[in-house]
Specification:
The chain is mainly α and 365 residues long. The protein is globular. Helix 4 runs antiparallel to helix 5 and helix 11 crosses helix 12.
């Protein structure tokens, strides 16, 4: 009869393993709940201040944000690791299911993050004012993890609103951020993946079909003014030189070849080998959209609770609004959203084949 765990706790376990290693794992110790549940220290309860009831909720919500950001970064790093180390056929044939699974996990987490703003809004503005003064100069603007997440997705220094400069609070944070700025971002890796898809999956033949389809589309437009404006719109993707100009202006983020690859995947999405690739593109847009929704919810929450006051870190409503409403620079996969601009009807892109019936023996000559 084998020894029970409790019997082995008293001495050395079989194989030389110390008995304490074999003690039953406890829920609280595994999750280190003593540290987590003891980490809500209110600034308002320090001597000489009036304890604010709502400060506990304020702390917990922001701690929850940081924990979710940790998981999002963990999953994002796994996705970029696959794209960085595996070639296109391997990703297509063996790794895409894993990428989609982890990406969809990020999406579900971001849905929670977006909704969490509503919990903060249950704090009434007057109740927030009662403890806000004690928070200076701490600010969500100092969230290293959120800045890391932006860098890893593909937001660059040139994309950011320049009015407020992020200053890391310690050397370790500065080192993490500096490293993340030099590593290939998800945007850069997706660009390479799309370029390889275009090269490996018959992109040039598709592009010829697309050019012919656009010509047919333009031929259907009767009015010259509308035909000219439509041609100018399509020239922005057909003409690589114009695409390059838009890249320099910050209005395009993907290379011309990568954009053509994304368009090819969109048109061929019903073919088996493109189905997961198309889901991947939609997943990237879902992630981008949820982050944009979080920014917007955050903007409205700040205005609701602070009005036009500056934030504790110097930003406030006007700064936050500028990251959502005044520019598309914070939208990482902007080109995927704008891809719909260049879609033409399927029957114009691939016109039905006209069949001519063979003459019968009784037909008149």
């Amino acid at each position: 009869m084998s020894e029970s765990v409790s019997e082995r706790e008293a001495g050395e376990a079989p194989g030389g393993v110390q008995a304490d290693v074999l003690k039953p794992l406890e829920y609280g110790k595994y999750l280190q709940l003593d540290k987590i549940l003891g980490a809500q220290k209110r600034e308002s309860e320090k001597p000489g201040r009036s304890p604010a009831h709502d400060e506990v909720l304020f702390i917990v919500v922001h701690q929850a944000y940081e924990l979710w950001f940790k998981v999002v970064i963990w999953e994002l790093d796994s996705i970029t690791g696959i794209l960085r180390t595996c070639d296109y056929p391997d990703v297509r044939d063996n790794k895409m299911r894993l990428i989609l699974g982890r990406g969809n996990r990020i999406i579900e987490i971001l849905k929670i993050v977006v909704q969490q703003v509503k919990i903060v809004e249950t704090i009434e503005p007057q109740d927030f004012v009662d403890f806000r003064d004690w928070l200076f100069p701490a600010s969500g603007f100092q969230s290293v993890q959120f800045r890391l997440l932006e860098n890893k997705l593909g937001i660059t220094k040139g994309d950011r609103v320049q009015e407020y400069k992020f200053t890391p609070v310690c050397a370790a944070d500065e080192g993490q951020l500096s490293t993340s700025e030099t590593q290939e971002s998800l945007l850069q890796l997706v660009q390479r993946w799309l370029e390889n898809a275009y090269d490996d999956e018959g992109g040039e033949a598709f592009w010829k079909d697309y050019q012919d389809g656009v010509s047919r589309r333009l031929g259907e437009i009767a009015g010259k003014a509308k035909r000219d404006s439509t041609k100018e719109m399509f020239d922005n993707i057909l003409d690589e030189g114009k695409h390059t100009e838009l890249e320099k202006e910050g209005k395009r983020k993907l290379s011309h070849r990568a954009l053509k690859g994304a368009l090819m995947i969109t048109y061929k999405r019903d073919e088996l080998k493109f189905q997961q690739a198309y889901q991947f593109l939609r997943m990237l847009m879902d992630m981008d959209e949820l982050l944009l929704r979080w920014r917007w919810n955050h903007v409205m929450m700040v205005q609701r609770m602070l009005g036009d006051k500056p934030g504790t870190g110097g930003g406030g409503y006007k700064y936050l609004r500028s990251t959502v409403c005044d520019s598309d620079k914070y939208k990482v996969f902007l080109d995927l959203f704008n891809l719909s601009t260049f879609l033409i009807p399927t029957d114009v892109m691939y016109p039905p084949q006209t069949t001519v019936s063979a003459p019968t023996a009784n037909s008149e000559e």
